From TrEMBL:
Binding residue positions for L-glutamate: 47
GO cellular component: cytoplasm
Subunit structure, as described in the record: Homodimer.
Lineage: Bacteria, Bacillati, Actinomycetota, Actinomycetes, Mycobacteriales
Organism: Corynebacterium kalidii
Gene3D superfamilies assigned to the protein according to its UniProt record, in alphabetical order: Aspartate Aminotransferase, domain 1, Type I PLP-dependent aspartate aminotransferase-like (Major domain)
This protein's name: Phosphoserine aminotransferase
Pathway entry: Cofactor biosynthesis; pyridoxine 5'-phosphate biosynthesis; pyridoxine 5'-phosphate from D-erythrose 4-phosphate: step 3/5; Amino-acid biosynthesis; L-serine biosynthesis; L-serine from 3-phospho-D-glycerate: step 2/3
Length: 377
């Protein structure tokens, strides 16, 4: 506790003070899963049944969670979504891609495509941060792959996942949305994500639901003379995933946490149950912001406001940085805004592992800070 910031009353402290937008809150049961399961498999060969069965359990659990359509497969490999963007530029984009961008992370795949010398320049449809573009902007686009982010982690805006009027593959970056936002996987060809957001695990892996068309594209490009680094080769990822393994050694502790979280999700209503939790949390946060004179949701259009990442602006009379620092001094962590956005705001993670009642308590704590005048300019 810092002497510079006031102590909050005990009843205004959430039961768990972790509200980060990635890495996000990890449930105690997941930590326990590392201890319990780790005795038998951490430090053993990832080519033997123990670890392969763990990978298989995660893949099976994700297939259930997302109610995968016939022919879709869960593929996994190392490196997180950052590596997946590079892999997609090598192994999914035939000649040209098109992208919707509306913040820091939704633009990263487009940037990779722009810099890839073996691809034609992509077409990019950009929207201002805090807004959400429409997938219909990609109707009829001259591209063989189109992509956007289900949820823009930097701004707290989300875009519906619906297939545009195009024959192109549809690739959705679902890193902060998968498991907490509604989705019909049949509307996509590749729905990819890292596990450190809704799945409350460590980073370093990527998972993706691949459609038959996407699996076909991987095989098609792999059969050409295009150079593809082995670590980024999607055919290698597909071949290994079908054996319930990864090309390189995975972090087994991450898989143990992921497996525990997926089982918890499926046992608590599946994806519908998780969306109910994030919908409750986000309704609490946005209703509070709309009622508080000094605050307002950064994303103006209600239907575009994320269920899993809430961004709240404050007017000039309030220093949001002081609010965040006061919260942090009291053990309520990671409410700071995305650094590059540069706004006077808070950013609140509302992933499934976060209890909606903790979000409610958080809003009461912010009320207390505002009413005390400590954050006044």
């Amino acid at each position: 506790m810092s002497d510079q910031f006031p102590t909050l009353p005990e009843n205004l402290l959430p039961a768990d003070g972790r509200f980060g937008c990635g890495p996000s809150k990890v449930r105690q049961d997941q930590i326990d899963a590392i201890v319990a399961g780790g005795r038998d498999i951490i430090g053993t060969s990832h080519r033997q049944p123990a670890v392969k069965n763990l990978v298989g359990s995660v893949r099976e659990g994700l297939s259930t969670l997302f109610n995968l359509p016939e022919g879709y497969e869960i593929i996994t490999s190392l490196g997180g979504a950052t590596a997946f963007w590079d892999s997609a530029s090598f192994g999914l984009v035939r000649n040209r891609s098109a992208h919707l961008t509306y913040g820091e992370f939704s633009g990263k795949f487009a940037t990779v495509s722009k810099k890839a010398p073996w691809l034609d320049a992509p077409e990019v449809f950009a929207s201002e941060p805090g807004t959400a573009p429409s997938p219909s902007q990609l109707d009829g686009v001259d591209a063989d792959l189109v992509g956007w982010a289900h949820n823009e982690t930097s701004t707290g805006a989300m875009v519906q996942v619906t297939r545009p009027a195009t024959d192109a593959l549809v690739a959705i970056d679902a890193t902060s949305g998968a498991g907490g936002l509604p989705v019909d996987i049949a509307e996509t060809d590749v729905y990819y994500f890292s596990p450190q957001k809704c799945f409350a695990s460590d980073g370093g892996l990527w998972f993706a639901a691949f459609s038959p068309a996407a699996l076909e594209r991987v095989e098609e490009i792999a059969a050409t003379d295009r150079y593809i680094p082995a670590f980024l080769d999607l055919k290698t990822a597909v071949d290994n995933s079908r054996k319930n393994q990864t090309y390189n050694t995975p972090a087994v502790s991450t898989l143990l946490m992921m497996d525990a979280q997926v089982k918890w999700m499926n046992a608590n209503g599946g994806l519908d149950g998780m969306v109910a939790r994030t919908s409750e949390s986000s309704s609490i946060l946005y209703s509070w912001a709309e009622a508080r004179p000094e605050a307002s949701p950064f994303v103006a259009e209600p239907s575009s406001r994320s269920l899993v990442v809430g961004t709240i602006d404050f007017d000039e009379s309030v220093d949001a940085d002081v609010i965040a620092k006061t919260l942090r001094a009291n053990g309520v962590l990671d409410t700071e805004p995305y650094r590059k956005l540069g706004r006077n705001q808070l950013r609140i993670g509302m992933f499934p592992a976060i209890d909606p009642e903790d979000v409610r308590t958080l809003t009461a704590a912010i009320d207390h800070i505002l009413d005390s005048g400590v954050a006044a300019r």
